[in-house]
Every structure is written in C-alpha cells, then in structure tokens.
Amino acid sequence: MRFVWAVAAFVLAAVMIVAGIAQRTIFQGPKTETVSISAEQDAPYLLIDGAVLNQLPGSQTLRAQADGDIFAAYGRAADLQAWLSDVPYNEVTLDEAGAIVTTNVVPVPADEGDAESGDAADEPAAGPTDKQLAAHSPVGSDLWLDEFQQTDILIAPLQLPEEMSILVATDGVEAAPTDVTVSWPIANATPWAGPLIVGGGILMAIGVLLYILGIRHARRSRGPRRKGLPLPVTEPIDLAVEGEDKGVISASPSTRRAVSTGRRAFAIVPVVAVSALLFSGCSADSWPQLGQTPTPSPTATVVAPEGQQAPAVTKAQAERIIARVAATAADADKERDKSLAATRMDGTVLATRATNYALRESIADYKAPAAILTKPLEIVLPQAYDGWPRSMMAVVDDKATKTSSIMVLTQEDAWSPYKLTYQASLEASTEMPDLAPWYIGAPQVQPDSPFLIMAPDQLATAYADVINEGDKSEYFDMFEAEGDHLREGIATDRQRRLDEFNKTASQTGSLTFSSAVGSQDAFALATLESGAIVAVNIDETDTVKPTNEDAVIKLESNPTVKTLAGADQSSTGFSTTFTDQVFFYVPAQGSNEKIRLLGYSSDILNAKVIQ
Predict the structure, then answer these.
(1) Are 374 and 427 in contact (CB under 8 A)?
(2) What's the pLDDT tens digit per position in 359-410?
(3) Any transmembrane segments, and where (predicted)?
C-alpha cells in the first residue's frame, strides 16, 4: 500500500509542478504592450502627447534608435509646445477613435496672411525662412522636468500624467529618430504558480519517503512468518581449505551495509533536485497577495483656487536650475567675466557683479562675491502662470555656515534660461509667512494691488522715506521696527561716517546721505493669508562736496571710489551709490500686522565725479 501512495504522490507532484512552471512560461503571455510611432515627414523634433503615453495604464518606457546621440526630455505639454512654436516638428496624438496619428506642424511667420488682396490670400502660404526657424539646442533647457541623452539607442523609463508630453530629437537640426516605440507593462501575475510548485515539491518529498518506507517494509517481510522445524546441528566449515568447493556463498554484513548505503544516497538525490527546482524563478507575482493594500495616512492639503494656473517649476526642477545658476556664477566670478554672468543673472544682481569685477581688476585684495547657495532647498514658491515671463522664489538654508538666502529667478521666454534677479540674506530670526506648496504655486501680485496694506510699487518709496526721515516719516508706523537690522545698520553707519568726516572736513566740505527707489521693479508673490512677499530695490547715495571754492575732495584712503570714479580728487565732489535688495512681508488689507523685513543685501553699485 505504501508503494501505491508513493506512486500517487509522485503523479500528483509532477502534475502540480508542471502546472506551476507552465503558468510562468508557456501560459504566461507577453509582459509588455508596445506600440510603434512613425512619421511620414522628417522633422528635427518628435513631440509625443501625454494622451498617447497614457492610453494604457501603468508606467511607460520610451525606446528610440538612431545613429549618434539621441535626446529626450519631458515637461508640461503647453511648455513643450511653446518651446517648439518657431520650429517644425512632428506631433503624435490620439484621434477621436483612439488611434495614434502623427501630424507635421510647421510654424507660420507672424506676417504671413496679412496681405489684404484676395489674390494674395489665395496663394499658398510660403514656408518660413531658415532665419525665422532658428534651431534651438534642446540640451539643458530649464523648461524640462528631466532629460535623457544616450548614444544609438535611448531607453527612458517614465511615469507621466496626461498633461505631460515628451520630446525626442537628435541635435535639433538633423531629423529626429524614426524608430520610436512606447511600451507599457501588462499585469500577468500568476499567483498560484508558486504554491503549485512548492506544493508539488512537498508531495514529491512525501512520495520519496513513502517509497523508502515501502522498500524497508518489503525487505523486512521476506520469507514465511510461521515457526519452522528445528534444524540439525551444523559443523563449522573451514573456508581456508584449498582446492575444495564448499558450496558456500559469502554474504557478509559489510556487503549488505554497502548496498543499503547506496540505496539511501540514490533516494536523497531526487529530493535535493526537487528542492533546487522549487525555489528557482519564483518572484513576488508568483504568489497570492494576502496582505491588505497599505493606504496613505491623511495629511493636511492645500487646494489651488479655482482657475489658478499651473506652477512655473517643480521642486526638483528648481533645484537643478539654482545649481546651474550657481555653477555659472562661480565660473564668472573666477574669471571676472560679465558676459558669462549675464547668461544667468540680470537686474541689480548683474550690476553689482559687474562692479565687483571692475574693482577686483584694479584692487588685488578686493573680496569676490559670496557663492550662491544651492542646498538644501527649504522653500520653493513658483509663480502660478502659464505664460512668460515667469518667476519663482526660493529659500536655501546652508546648515554648515548657518546662513540662509532668499532669491527670485525669472525666465523671460520659453527659450531663455532662468536668471537670478533678486538675492538677499535672511535675517537670523526671520519667520516666514505661510506659503503655498511648490506643487500649487502662488499668483504674482500686481504692482498696484489694492488688496495689500501697501501696493508693491509704493513699498520702495515708503521704506526709503523711513530710512531718510526716521520716525518723522509718514510711513514709519507701517513698518515693524523690531528686528529691522537694515534700517538700524544704515543709521549707525551714516552717523559713524559723518562723525569721522566732521573731524577733519566740516569746515571745507559736506557729506549728505539719501535713499531712493532703485532701477529694478518690485516683484511680489501671494501668501496663503492673502498677503505677499515683496522684493524691492533701494539705492543709497552718499554725496561729498567741497563748501569752499579753494577746497578739493581727495580720495587718498578710498581706493574703491577712486577706481569706480576714475579720479583721485575733484573740486566738485563725488557721489557713491550703494544698492539694496530688500524682501518684505506685506499683510493684506484689514490686517493688524505691520510690514515686516525678511532679508536684505547691500553692495556698492557705482561712484562718479559730480559734474
């Protein structure tokens, strides 16, 4: 009976193992669904719409083949279309039936179709000239959320929503790759393959055990079981006698032990082989998932107001942009190259950099600008805007140096890089207002907004008046004095310099100070409390003049002003301008709060001889 059960176990084990292996091989089916993308006309770019990427659920894998370098990047569909607005490209979309269609898009010059005559209107539109369709290099654009570059074959794993698109190209001049496919994984889990294979292995081990027990039982059951007749007494046989055939067959215990040992080894071999088979090739999708699907814990969320546009950048995008700006600034500072700095800086930031470079050319020990902080990026507040120019505000907190920097970066159009336009150091005890998360962004507050206790375009004028007049200013009570180290520092420095000047030159000259609105426009982004963070530019001018016709202003101990003014003395005097980049929090109308200083920076801008 043991042999019967052993055979049954072997047969059932074989069926289970074969069924389990078949589920993972011949019956499993394809693991991916792949579609090919083709275009009838060559174009330097191929734009694949998000609807095409999401026609099947799951992550996407883009594959493109061509000779040489292949480039791919993804971002918001509207941004990619704007970037391609002046070049021909092939656009891959879905038609109403859900089929993939490729359309060749050729931009029309701005003056095309303006002719008033009917004959001109009936003529076929002339294609754009090469000058009008200037090629752009797609590599390194700040619009991309991510980009890929590989040689001959490009494989890009993606997981993009429908509002995202992907751009494929070579160098922006030659035709884009024509061998392009998009694939999606197919859910083909075999949850019973693992249990079948393991269960079959266990049955096979049981069958082997039953087989061994059956053999053992059969061997012990040999011969009659009834009691036999008494045997006659035998005499011992001398096996050493030569030449005589005794008719005895040797069956020593050692021989029997050897045979028994060989059979045990033979029986163990299948068990080991089956065990190796059981656990090879069994992945997670070969087993039933019995555990509950984890659910995310609820967190506080901020909902974007209805009709608000998309944020200009993501946090990862902002980190990459700031790192690029910092790297370019470091190279420009090292080489004192204003043209290089202008590729990533603008406004007051660029102007003060140019001044620094000029001073370092003439003054050997003049200090270089501080490096732009890049990480960790604590706050990213992108402007919620689909058009251009678009901006973002960021705060970087350097734990090593215990310094923080707040900055504004602006992109003028789809092809331009982001440039640093405002930069300041945050006060040590600065408490930032509540801001929207980066994935929502904030709308830009209009310069003349009536919804704040002071319009952004009036803020620089009011603060300059407070610096000049102190508590006599009509705006004094609107600004929080506690923690305003800029105002305090300006007042202290002015008094110190005036005292030094009066010691030697009070009878022959005059030193005056004034603050006024700088050349850069104010920039403001809304906060969650309907207030705004506002960046403004204020210029401080020091003017020294002789009050005696025979007096001359000399710059013996001031190499900075001497270098910028290009003179070491003047009978008419000198004016020196410092520029401040200042960030404020401005509360909403009806708030009991005052305008609060967040951070500032101050640098020398220029110096000149008074004409």
Answers:
(1) no
(2) 999 999 999 999 999 989 999 999 999 999 999 999 999 877 788 999 999 9
(3) 192-213, 265-287
C-alpha 94/C-alpha 521 separation (Å) is 45
Q: Which of 422, 411, 444 is nearest to 317 (CA)?
A: 411
Do residues 102 and 37 make contact, with C-beta atoms less than 8 angstroms apart? yes
Q: Nearest 5°: CA angle at 380, between 353 and 536?
A: 45
Concatenated DSSP letters of 389-415: SEEEEEEEEETTTTEEEEEEEEE-STT
Name residue 121's amino acid: A
Q: How far apart are CA 174 and CA 534, in angstroms?
A: 45
What is the residue-wise DSSP string for 492-531? HHHHHHHHHHHHHHTTTEEEEEEEEE-SSPPEEEE-TTS-
Give the whole-angstrom CA distance, residue 273 versus residue 281.
15
**CB-CB contact of 160 with 148 (8 Å):** no
Q: What is the CA radius of gyration of the chain?
A: 42
- Among 127-136, 205-214, 276-285, 572-581, the range with the most confident prediction by mean pLDDT is 572-581
Beta carbons within 8 Å of 484's beta carbon, 6+ residues apart: 597
Q: Which residues contact 519 (CB under 8 A, 6 or more apart)?
A: 347, 348, 537, 539
Chain centroid to Cα 586, Å, comes to 31
119 pLDDT more than 90: no
Q: Is residue 450 within 8 Å of residue 402, measured between CB atoms? A: no
Report which residue type is found at 493.
D
CA dist., res. 448 & res. 457, Å (int): 6
The letter for the amino acid at 477 is: D
CA within 13 Å, CB half, 418: 30
The token pair at 233 is: 């007494």
Indicate if the alpha-carbon torsion angle 360, 365, 369, 373 is positive or negative: positive
Percent composition of the chain: helix, strand, coil (DSSP 3-state, to 5): 30, 25, 45
Distance CA 102, CA 40 (A): 8
Q: Please state, rounded to an integer, the average pLDDT across all residues of the chain.
A: 84
Give the model's pLDDT for residue 192.
63
pLDDT at 110 over 60: no
d(CA 39, CA 92): 9
> What confidence tens digit (pLDDT) does each residue in 219-233 have?
777 655 555 555 565
Residue 80's nearest CA partner among 21, 145, 35 is: 145
Query: Taking Cα atoms as reference points, which of 361, 360, 348, 355 lies closest to residue 608?
Result: 355
User: How far apart are alpha carbons 303 and 244 in whole angstroms?
Assistant: 110
pLDDT band, very low/low/confident/very high, at 209 (cuts 50, 70, 90): confident
Give the pair of three-digit tokens for residue 69: 């370098």
Q: Which domains does the chain have, with CATH numbers?
A: 32-109+134-185 (2.60.120), 310-428 (3.10.450), 445-611 (no CATH)
